[in-house]
């Protein structure tokens, strides 16, 4: 009996507990639905909205850069230091002077160079004298050879032939006397001593003839070639002396011309029309370079820049995240700080293929973009900084919404929060196209004229977004 009563009491308690749980669930659910509705009503009443528009979409890249001339000639010192620290500036035209081609720019100190030029000219005169002397000696040596071949040789041969003829005549006379003595000796009218004397005279005359003939042969076969070789060698020596003298003269003239060019380089004139800009450099770690009268300039050091004011450009540096959008030929508007409200027309001329060296560790990667300024404006001057707006994209008649009105759900799913005519709000799945950091092109899911929440991401937790598109 007691057991059955206890069992019925337990069942009643379980039924009461389940009923209480069901009641609490209904109460909590109703409270949550009431709070969500109140929150939606609050968002719809207080949120800032924007009406989606349809029109022209423009995307641009905005950067700053240095305004300079695209035709900028560097004028450098061409005077060699020659062991000195440099050459002094004696006179300068004021910076900012507009000059034409050939106008005076600068005078460097040329006093020492002029003294050295005079010394070079003295050396040139001496070397010219040596060349003339060598030419005279060469001509004399050639004359000696001509004199020998066309005169002295034939004269010597004739002289030796004459000696041979005399020797022959003496031999004939000696032989006649010897024959006559022999006849007288046979008749007893001449002694043996006379006979022997005439015989010796005949033999001596014959030997002298042979000696004269041999002397002619030796002269023709040997002495002539020796004298010709000696005279030819002298000609070669004088020719070599002349060549050496000519080399010395050429070298002296070259050095004279070099000094003359150095003197002429001390007077610098404008190679083209432009505006004078001093090549001052205050960023050097060791010392600043200041172009002024009295300053010393090294060989090869920049003195002036001569930009052509009719060919101006902006050298802008574009971050690597935007560089792929920039193309040659894109329209550009340039604004200077002195008149930021006035746009000046330009066009992209060149986009660098390689990034600039990083200025410090982990510095942003930047590329040079050169913008030609196509509009003549008195506001454009070299040395200024300019803001460039490069127009990289343009679309007509497209629906646009603020970038801040987009809510990203997942990896690439975007929603906007639309405010209906009834004052309610609802999430709307949209497809987006290009954006310019302010507005995004809505290609699907939204129409022009619909109201959307601007700071939509702040209401993310209060909106029940669909789990899947």
What do these coordinates show?
This protein is α+β, with helices and mostly antiparallel strands and 469 residues long. The protein folds into three domains: 49-66 and 311-462, Efflux pump adaptor protein, beta barrel domain (Elongation Factor Tu (Ef-tu), domain 3), CATH 2.40.30; 78-108 and 266-305, RNA polymerase II/Efflux pump adaptor protein, barrel-sandwich hybrid domain (OB fold (Dihydrolipoamide Acetyltransferase, E2P), Beta Barrel), CATH 2.40.50.100; 113-265, Helix Hairpins. It is 42% helix and 29% strand. The chain has helices at residues 2-46, 111-187, 192-265; strands spanning 49-51, 53-69, 72-76, 87-92, 98-99, 104-108, 267-269, 274-275, 277-278, 296-297, 302-307, 312-319, 331-336, 339-351, 366-373, 385-402, 407-409, 413-419, 425-435, 439-444, 451-453. It has a six-stranded antiparallel beta barrel. A four-stranded antiparallel beta sheet has the order 7-6-4-10. It starts with a helix and ends in a 16-residue tail after the last strand.
């Amino acid at each position: 009996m007691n057991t059955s009563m206890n069992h019925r009491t337990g069942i009643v308690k379980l039924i009461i507990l389940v009923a209480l749980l069901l009641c609490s669930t209904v109460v909590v659910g109703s409270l949550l639905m009431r709070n969500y509705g109140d929150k939606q009503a609050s968002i719809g009443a207080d949120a800032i909205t924007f009406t989606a528009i349809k029109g022209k979409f423009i995307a641009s890249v905005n950067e700053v850069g240095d305004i300079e001339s695209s035709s900028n000639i560097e004028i450098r010192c061409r005077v060699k230091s020659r062991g000195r620290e440099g050459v002094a500036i004696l006179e300068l035209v004021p910076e900012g002077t507009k000059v034409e081609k050939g106008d005076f720019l600068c005078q460097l100190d040329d006093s020492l160079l002029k003294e050295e030029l005079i010394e070079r000219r003295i050396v040139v005169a001496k070397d010219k004298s040596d060349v003339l002397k060598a030419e005279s000696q060469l001509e004399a040596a050639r004359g000696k050879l001509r004199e020998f071949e066309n005169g002295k040789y034939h004269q010597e041969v004739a002289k030796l032939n004459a000696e041979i003829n005399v020797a022959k005549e003496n031999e004939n006379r000696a032989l006649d006397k010897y024959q006559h003595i022999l006849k007288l000796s046979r008749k007893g009218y001449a002694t043996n001593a006379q006979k022997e004397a005439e015989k010796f005279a005949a033999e001596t005359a014959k030997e002298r003839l042979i000696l004269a003939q041999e002397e002619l042969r030796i002269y023709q076969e040997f002495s002539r070639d020796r004298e010709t070789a000696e005279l030819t060698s002298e000609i070669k020596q004088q020719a070599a002396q002349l060549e050496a003298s000519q080399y010395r003269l050429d070298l002296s003239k070259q050095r004279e011309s070099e000094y003359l060019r150095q003197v002429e380089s001390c007077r610098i004139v404008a190679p083209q029309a432009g505006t004078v800009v001093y090549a001052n450099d205050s960023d050097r770690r060791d010392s600043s370079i200041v172009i002024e009268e009295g300053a010393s300039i090294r060989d090869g050091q920049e003195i002036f820049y001569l930009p052509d004011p009719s060919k101006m450009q902006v050298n802008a540096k574009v971050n690597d995240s935007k560089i792929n959008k920039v193309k040659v030929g894109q329209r550009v508007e340039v604004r200077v700080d002195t008149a930021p409200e006035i746009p000046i027309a330009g066009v992209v001329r060149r986009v660098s293929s390689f990034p600039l060296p990083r200025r410090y560790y982990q510095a942003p990667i930047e590329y040079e973009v050169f913008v030609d300024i196509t509009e003549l404006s008195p506001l454009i001057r070299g040395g200024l900084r300019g803001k460039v707006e490069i127009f990289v994209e343009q679309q007509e008649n497209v629906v646009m919404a603020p970038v801040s009105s987009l809510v990203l759900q997942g990896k690439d799913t975007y929603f906007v929060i639309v405010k209906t005519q009834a004052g309610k709000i609802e999430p709307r799945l949209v497809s987006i196209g290009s954006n310019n950091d302010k507005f995004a092109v809505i290609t699907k899911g939204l129409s022009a004229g619909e109201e959307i929440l601007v700071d939509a991401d702040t209401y993310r937790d209060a909106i029940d977004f669909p789990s899947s598109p």
